[in-house]
Amino acid sequence: MSGLARRLVIFATIEGLVLQAHGHPEHHKSLLIDYRSQQITDRAKRDQHNNQDSVRLEAHGLIGFINVASSSYLIAITKREEVARIYDKPIYLVTDVALLPLTSQHEAGEAIKNALGSSETASDDSDSSASDTEHEEQSKTAQLGTAPADDTGPYQGENPSSSSVAEDVATRNVSFGKFASQWLSRQKWPASKLAKDESSTQSSEPKPASKDDTLLEDLAEAKENKQSGATAESSDTNKPTGSSSSTTVNLLPRILRTTKMIFTSGSYFFSYDIDLTRRFEDMNTPDQPLNHRNLDPLFFWNRKLGAKLLESNNSNFLTPILQGFVGQRAFTLSKGSSENNKAEVKAVTDDVKSLAKASDKDETEQAFLLTLISRRSTKRAGLRYLRRGIDDEGNVANFAETEQILSAADWSSAVPIRSFLQVRGSIPAYFSQSPYQFKPTVIFHNSPQANQKAYDKHFQNLKQRYGATQAAVLVDRHGTEQPIGEAYERMYSKSKEEGKADDISFEWFDFHSECRGMKFENVSRLVSKLDPFLQSSGETTMQNGTTQSRQKGVIRTNCMDCLDRTNVAQSAFAQHKLQASLEAEGYSIDFVKDPSTNWFNILWADNGDAISRQYASTAALKGDYTRTRKRNWRGAMNDFGLTISRYYSNMVNDFFSQAVIDMLLGNVSWKVFEDFESTMMSTDPGISVQSGREAAIDMCSKMVIQEPDKEDLIHAWTMLVPNQENTLRTLPFEEAVVLLTDSALYCCKMDWGTEKVARYEKVDLRNVKSIKWGVYVTSTFTERQMSEDINQGLVICYTPGKGDVVRVNTRSLQNYHVPQEDERQGVDGGTGLLSWMAASVTRQSAAQDRTMALKVVPPSDDDALITSKAGKPGEIAENVADEIRRAIHGSTQFGEQRGKEIVEHSDIISVAEAKRRTGYIEQVSHSLKRLVWA
C-alpha cells in the first residue's frame, strides 16, 4: 500500500489553512479548517484561491488543536517511523510534528515552508517499509500535492500520470476513507467511478450516514449557533476565554517549543487500523475499522486536543496517539532441547514474512513474534517530582499498563496468541518530595482518612479493570523510603480489616537490601514468591478467533518512582511468563544463559528507558543489567550521570513542561501561564485544593477556639498573609486560615505538609480600630500580579490588649507569646528588601498599633472561577470586612454609625506604590529566576 494513502495535503491560502483531500490542479476538492469560524460560502471564490500559488505540506495525520491566548494551532504529524506490525498492520512512532498557526495566513505559510524544508533535508528512514522509488514520489508529492504516478484514480483517463490523494484514500479504505467517499459523492464525481469506489469499500466499510458531516459545514453551523447565542464550543477546555495576556504571549515561543519537544520525544505511537489504547483481547481485528468512540480514554492521549474533530463527526481526520512504548522482535524456535534454539532476531519488516515462510518448511520449527506495548495513563500524567502519589479520584502518578504479546510471526490464528499484562504506578497515598535534594524525604499530605479513601478508590478501579491485584512493593525498609512503605502497608492492613482487600495481596520486597552488591539476579526470589499468583491469574490466550482463557489478575509493581527497580522486576516477571508459555507449546529455551536471547533483555530495557524519559527526562537507571543481566562499575557510573541529569531537569525544566502537559491534556487552560511567570511553579489539578482548605478550617476551629461553648464561630476563610506579622509584605506569602467568632479574629498559619497549625494570632474584636479593604498589589512583574480586579485584600488595625494572643507550635511545648514593644516595628522596621511596613495604611503609628494584613487568594487560571459563587476578589474582600464590622458591632455595642466608620474602602497598596516599593535587587533576582525557569 502506498504511503500516500495515509496522508493529507496541508497548504496555506489567503483564507487560512486548508486540508486538501486531492491535489489535481483542475479539480480541487478542498476541506477548509477555519478555526476563526470565517465562513466561505462562495465556491468559485474558494476555487480561485486554491488555484493561486500556495505552500503545501503532506502530513501523516492530525493530532488536534491547541489554543494559547488568542492564537490557535493545528498539530500535524510530518514524520513517522514504523516500529512494529500487529495483524500485519503497521504501528508508527511519531518522529516529527508541525505546529501550524490558524489565525494568520502568512504565519501558516511560513510554518509550512519550515516544516517542508525540514522534511526535504531529512532522510526518509522513517518510512522503513517504503521503497526508494516511493520515497522519491513522496518527496515530489510533498512539494506538488499530487499522488505518485502509479496510483490509479478517477482522473486517470484525463491525466494518467497524476492521480488524487482523495481517491487513494477512498478506494483503499484507510482512516479517512469514510469522509472522503461522503465528501466526494456530494461534489458530483463521475457516477461510474463512484459506483466502483462504493463497491470496493462496501465489504469492509459501513455505509456512510446520510447526514452531512463535513467539517466545513459543521464549522459553518457552529458559527451560526454562536451568532444566535448557542454555546456549542463551551466544552473545549482549551478555548481562550478572554483577551490574551502579554505574559502568555511572551511565553508563547517556549510553549510551542515545549509542545513540539513533547510530541517529538519518541514517546508517541499511532496506528491507522489497530486500537492501541486497548489490551490485545479487546483490540479490533483487521476486518473491523478503527472506531474512535471505542478508544479507551485512559490511554487516548490526544482526546482533548481532537475534541473539535470528534464533536463535529470528523473523527476520521484525527489520528489517535498513545504515549508509552511499542517494540517487537521476531525469533525462531525448534521443538526439543533448548541447546538447539538460538532464537535469532529478525527485523519487523519483510524479513518476518520470510522467517515465517522458512519455518513453514520445517514442521518442528516455529517463527514467533514478541510484541511489547506500554500504555501510560492520561490521568495524573506528568513529570517525576511534580506528579507523585495519588489524586482525589484514585489515579496514581506514572501509571502504565505493559502488555507482552506472543504470537506467530505471520499472526496465524492457528497458533495460540498469548497476552500477559502488568501495571506500575506510584504508591497510592498523598505525598510529595522536594526536587532539590538527592535523597528527598517524603512529605505526607491530607488526613489518614482522606488517604485511606483515595487508596480504596484506586484499588477498586484496579479490580474493575483487571480483577485480582498483587502489589509488589520494592521500596526500602529503612531510610527515607521506610515511612512511605509503612504507610502503604498500613492502608492495606486497614482495608483488609474492613473486608475491602479480598482480592488484594501485598508483598514488600526490599530491592536494595535483597540485591545488595549489584546482584540484581536476586530479584528471582520475588518471582518465586509470587509464582502462585502468576499461575492462578494466568494469561489471555486466543486461537482461531476465539478467546480460550483470560488473565484473571495483575501484578502492580512500584518503587519510589516506578522506574528503575520496577523495570528490573517487571522484566523478570515477563521473562518467567514467556518461558512458561513457550514450554506449554513444547519449546524449551534458556533466557538466562543463552546469549542469543539477549534481544529479550534489550526489548525490555528499551521499554524501561522510554517510560523513564517520559517521567524523569532521562533513560532508566540499572539499564545495563536489564539489557545484559550483568552489573559492573561502568553501569554504576552511567547511573550517576543520569542521576545528575535528572536532578537538573527536576530543578530547571520540569515546572514549565508540566504546565504544558496539563494544558495539552485539558486539565488546565492556557491561562495557567499567566501565573507561571511570577511563581515559576505549576499546581496539581488532580488534588482538590478546596477540600484541603475545608479540612484545615475544621481543624483550626477545633484547635484554636478554646471555649467553643462560649465563643460562636461566625465565618471562616482561607487568605494569603505576609510571612511576618505586622507587615504588608514579607515574602513568601502564605495561605492561612482566618476564623471570625463573636468575640475574636484568628489568623492561623498552617504547615500544609504536616497539616498542623504552625502559628496563630488572636485579636480581640474590642481592640480593633479600623478596617481598610481595597487594591492590594504585592508584586509588579506580570500583568496578572498588577491587575486591580484580582489583587484585593484588607488590613485590620488594632491596639494590642489582654485579649490578644500569639502562639507558636515549637513541636514540643507551645510557646505563649505577647507582642512586645520592640517587636511592633515589624521584623526589620520596614527597611528590608522584601518587607513593606504597614504604618502607612493605619491611622495610628506603628509604635502603638499593630496590623493584620489579609489578601484574597487570587482565582485560578479559569476566568469562570473569578465570578464563582464566592464572588470576585473585590467582592470577597468587601464581604469579609463587612462580616468583621458586624461582629464588632455585636460584641462592643457600637452605634450603627460608629460601626460603619471603622470600615474604609481605599487602596492598601496601589499599582503605582507597588512599583515604587519594588527594589532593584528584587527585580534582578526575578529576572535571573525567569531566565532559568521561563
UniProtKB/TrEMBL annotation:
Pfam families listed in its UniProt record: hSac2, Syja_N
A biological process term (GO) from this entry: phosphatidylinositol dephosphorylation
Occurrences of domain HSac2 (ranges): 687-837
Bias (Basic and acidic residues) ranges: 208-226
GO function terms (MF aspect): phosphatidylinositol-4-phosphate phosphatase activity
Keywords on record: Signal
First and last residue of the signal peptide: 1-23
Polar residues biased stretches: 227-248
PROSITE patterns, A to Z: HSAC2, SAC
GO cellular component: endoplasmic reticulum
Domain SAC, residue spans: 259-617
Top-rank lineage group of the source organism: Eukaryota
InterPro entries cross-referenced by the UniProt entry: hSac2, Inositol_phosphatase, SAC_dom
Region listing for Disordered, in residue ranges: 115-167, 191-248
Protein name: Uncharacterized protein
Species for this entry: Knufia fluminis
